[in-house]
Write a structure and sequence with these properties.
alpha/beta; Rossmann fold; 6-stranded mixed β-sheet; 5-stranded parallel β-sheet; 14 strands; 45% helix; Histidinol dehydrogenase; Hstdl_DH; zinc; Histidinol_DH_monofunct; plasmid
Length: 427
């Protein structure tokens, strides 16, 4: 499950039966074919793959303004209220984050002026998953921060068979254009452009293995947020852990997908055994047990650590997408953790609140990527670019060392460019 060594003092009460990372490798060839065809054939290839994979025959992909408005009108009133509640929370947090992003200009030496600007992207593509369940929060998480960041145009793609409420969610969140295209063909269309879909500068949003692989393959000419998915949850618990609550939270995440990775890391052997029993009990009455049970069977794990330090070390190796802390002093414990997508401190902070509506983003790094990146946020839609300018004092500061360094490297053109300005200043 991880490329890093696991401490040999850890005892596994339940080990995963499959390797989530290795299981991710089988879709590469198919995705490469999709990208190649979309590049060559545009809309025709997208239409063909939509019929093949989604069983949807569409004459046009874009959702009209009338269809968008009708989808909003048909929303259940309570669903609309809850959707707007979530949009409000995500917007407020994104605005607060945006407020921390400041342009900069500083004179580091006499006459040497350096700075940076935060510039919103021109056009972003937001992939909105909607296959197994109508994930009403998904468009909110990718579109609302883009709107707050000031992105010029926001393109949303969602599977053609997605629930109509998902279209309403895209509209209410602020998407400029919405397309009924899903899977790898959606990523290809947004990255490469077709007759209907304009090419974007960056693609964001979670998806299945095919969407992730497509994002990986198009990266370079276009940016991506990260390779997000399948979902993960790990819970860190000591003797104060509640077996029923822990099992409930594990299964809540496991019902996302049969490939969801779920785990408990604890210092208490009795709690480990209790959670193992409680998961089996809850699966018997869970309506989504077919999905959650398969995920638990294949990718679930429970590990017992000899002490807190080992528990922290193993957690940082896993670098879980969602990491819950159920310990006696959760806030103090949380400050010792470094690697995760998003941290849920104390038993009251369930992943479900972030998944749906509390305001933090649910598009997060998986497969250990939490060791080097965080999740989707307003800064994901901005590029920070540097600039510099110099007056005469600045030339006097930097030209002589630049001349000498260029000469020592044998780069005569560089040396001349640096020397020219110095000569004119001195002449």
């Amino acid at each position: 499950m991880t490329r890093l060594p696991i401490p040999d003092t850890i005892r596994f009460v339940k080990s995963p039966a499959r390797d989530a990372i290795a299981d991710n490798a089988s879709v590469e060839t198919l995705v490469a074919e999709v990208l190649k065809r979309v590049a060559a054939e545009g809309d025709a290839a997208v239409r063909d793959y939509s019929e093949k994979f989604d069983k949807a025959a569409l004459d046009r992909f874009e959702v009209t303004a009338e269809e968008r408005e009708a989808a909003v009108e048909r929303l259940d009133p309570q669903t609309r209220e809850d959707t707007e509640f979530a949009i409000s929370n995500v917007r407020m947090f994104a605005r607060a984050q945006f407020g921390t992003l400041q342009d900069l200009e500083v004179e580091i030496r006499p006459g040497v002026h350096l700075g940076h600007r935060n510039i919103p992207l021109d056009r972003v593509g937001c992939y909105v998953p909607g296959g197994r369940y109508p994930l009403l929060s998904a468009p909110i998480m990718s579109i609302v921060p883009a709107k707050v960041a000031g992105v010029g145009e926001i393109i949303a793609c969602l599977p053609p068979n997605a629930h109509e409420a998902m279209i309403a969610g895209c509209h209410l969140s602020g998407a400029d254009r919405i397309f009924r295209i899903g899977g790898a063909q959606a990523i290809a269309a947004m990255a490469l452009g077709t007759q209907s879909v304009p090419p974007v500068d960056k693609i964001v949003g979670p998806g299945n293995a095919f969407v992730n692989e497509a994002k990986r393959q198009v990266f370079g000419p276009v940016g991506i947020d990260q390779l997000a998915g399948p979902s993960e949850i790990f819970i860190l618990a000591d003797h104060t852990g509640d077996a029923e609550m822990i099992a409930t939270d594990l299964l809540a995440q496991a019902e996302h997908d049969t490939r969801t990775r779920v785990g408990l890391i604890t210092t208490n052997a009795d709690l480990a055994e209790a959670v193992l029993r409680e998961v089996d009990v809850q699966l018997k009455s869970l309506s989504t047990a077919a999905t959650a049970g398969q995920a638990w069977k294949d990718y679930g794990e429970i590990s017992v650590c000899p002490d807190e330090a080992t528990m922290i070390a193993y957690s940082d190796i896993v670098a879980a997408e969602h990491l819950q802390v159920h310990t006696e002093d959760a806030k103090t414990f949380a400050r010792k953790l470094k690697h995760y997508g998003s941290l849920f401190i104390g038993p009251n902070a369930s992943v479900v609140y972030s998944d749906k509506c509390c305001g933090t983003n649910h598009t997060l790094p998986t497969m250990g990527a939490g060791r080097y990146t965080g999740g989707l946020w307003v800064g994901s839609y901005i590029k920070t670019v540097t600039h510099q300018w110099m007056d005469e004092d600045g030339i006097r500061e930097v030209a002589p060392p630049a001349v000498r360094q260029s000469a020592s490297e044998g780069l005569e053109g560089h040396r001349r460019a640096a020397q020219l300005r110095l000569d004119r200043l001195q002449g």
